[in-house]
Design goal:
The structure is a homodimer.
Chain A lengths: L5 H11 L2 H4 L3 E12 L2 E8 L9 E2 L2 E3 L7 H13 L3 H5 L2 E8 L10 E10 L13 E6 L46 H18 L13 H12 L5 H10 L4 E7 L12 E5 L20
Parallel strand pairs in A: 1-6
Antiparallel strand pairs in A: 1-2, 1-4, 2-3, 2-7, 5-6, 8-9
The first copy, chain A, binds a DNA duplex (30 and 30 nucleotides) through helix 7.
DNA sequence: CGAGAAATACTCATACTGAGAACGACATCG
DNA sequence: CGATGTCGTTCTCAGTATGAGTATTTCTCG
């Protein structure tokens, strides 16, 4: 970048655009962090301590530290604070910018522009309250977002062994159940946008693997797609497709040691390949052609 | 939305996050407005009047009016100011959010978060300086953005009749030719992101028609794709494809009256259909599978 | 009028997709 | 232990989409 002509520029600028007088807009980052727990899609949420929306769930987020961090850094910091993950664990989390929300009255206190981020995380431990939040936890998305699940019904019965306790972490109370069922501010909208982005993104990128551990079976990968898309997929065709797309997954040469829950052979294990884009893409079933 | 408990909240908030002391971040919108002129992709740019980057080209943009407009409204306003279009003409312009840019020092004066928008416009009249810009004009993207054109070479000779004067509008000077060839601030990066988004977006949406007038020929539509993608397409296959995707275009029943430049029959005319998404999509040639 | 160019249509080989079936490994139940 | 059912994996087959090339007709230009 070129060097500015500091003094002169600064004088002009500040005279015309004094932040206090003309531009009292706050900038925050909010994170839609998604993970899979017990075969259901969950989103990280915090319980608001103060007004407005006290006691309601909200997306984790906070103010960008002016002059000291980029938006990406702010999002990573907020995510780390709320999940309690260290840098190494965060490395395995995919984090991308989702979009910005800046209606003048989305926050009743002042004009706040929020830059939303979307995160895909493998199964994570219970969240922990960070910052000024009263509690934090993973919420099943279909419990909050009207657009949480696509039009379809639930994918299939799907009962995995482990605990089904959905509200992990901090508080034992269950805020957000005030009838609206929604998140604070416009976070319901942000979540819906994040979910749509996630559904679209796993079509043409290998990011579905970001929901899984180091190694996984094709069936586990298929369950990620089924859960995120909310639709059942043909197991045989999915298998063929995944193995035929170059760089999607690579074999570890090993076989799953865990016994299948209801019989069947031990599945082979794979790890994420080196592709950044899937070609050809895995398209969602239906999509009802054009018009929608 | 629920009603805030104003007073208490406001006290807490302001105590902790006084805009002046803790959060002097300015919020702007910048617009990557693309159009086709003489078979080449052009971007709307303004010549900077003051420091920093005085005399350099930059994307049109400006501060969001706190408490008075949303980000979308601010972007539409900036675009209207710079192009001089009225509301009716703007209606035919596609405008969508591109992403936000917030590195602490992207503007040397202070921390500025810029929300970038992407606009697709049909051939427009010369731009007019609006606001504090010294000049405004449509610049051929390959003249500025290193990533302006995809890896490929120029699509094909392509010489259309009219004036090739690229720098329309305001000033007769040609700023930006200081050796770097780039735009001010990080606008080169924003432009590159906008171009990539545009290339991707015309794959699965009918937005290529937004670069054309009310009615157009299949060949004109193909030229949009060729220009944006920077690659020649097979005319016959393109024709078959466009007509086979439901809702992409619909026939007007009429035939082009203008004589072809170098012979050939009069082409049939079409208008944009009602599809929002193309299915199946029109994929860019090659894309070199996975890894990239 | 003849050459060349362009709009559109057609052909053919190949690739990808959805649906279904086959087969063998494994668990659980009786 | 054997019957029964589940599940991972592979195959087959038909329908559809794609890339490349060619044919036909209608123009303009010289």
């Amino acid at each position: 970048m070129a060097e500015p002509d500091g003094t002169q520029a600064e004088r002009d600028f500040l005279a015309q655009y004094d932040p206090r007088a003309f531009d009292p807009i706050a900038v925050t980052v909010d994170v839609v962090a998604l993970t899979l727990r017990a075969g259901r899609l969950h989103v990280l949420a915090v319980e608001r301590g103060g007004q407005p929306f006290a006691g309601r769930w909200a997306l984790p987020g906070g103010f960008v530290r002016a002059g000291r961090e980029s938006l990406d850094e702010a999002a990573a910091r907020e995510l780390a604070e709320e999940t309690g993950l260290d840098a190494a664990a965060l490395d395995r989390v995919h984090l991308e910018q989702l979009g910005s929300y800046g209606s003048p009255h989305r926050d009743p206190r002042m004009h706040v522009v929020s830059v939303a981020y979307l995160a895909f995380a493998p199964g994570l431990p219970d969240a922990q309250p960070g910052g000024d939040a009263a509690g934090a936890g993973w919420l099943p998305v279909e419990a909050i977002s009207p657009a949480g699940q696509p039009d379809e019904a639930r994918p299939r019965p799907f009962e995995q062994g482990r605990r089904t306790g959905a509200y992990g972490g901090g508080a034992g109370r269950r805020p957000g159940h005030d009838g609206s069922g929604g998140l604070a501010f416009d976070h319901g909208r942000i979540l819906a946008d994040g979910l749509e982005r996630a559904r679209a993104k796993i079509e043409y990128t290998p990011l579905a693997t970001a929901f899984l551990g180091e190694s996984f079976t094709i069936t586990e990968l298929r369950e990620v797609y089924e859960t995120v898309w909310g639709a059942a997929l043909h197991a045989g065709n999915f298998h063929r497709k995944v193995l035929s797309v170059p760089g999607f997954v690579e074999s570890t040469g090993e076989t799953d040691t865990r016994p299948g829950s209801r019989g069947g052979p031990r599945a082979r294990l794979y790890r994420a390949g080196d592709a950044r884009l899937l070609h050809p893409a895995l398209l969602r079933p239906d999509r009802e052609a054009g018009v929608r």
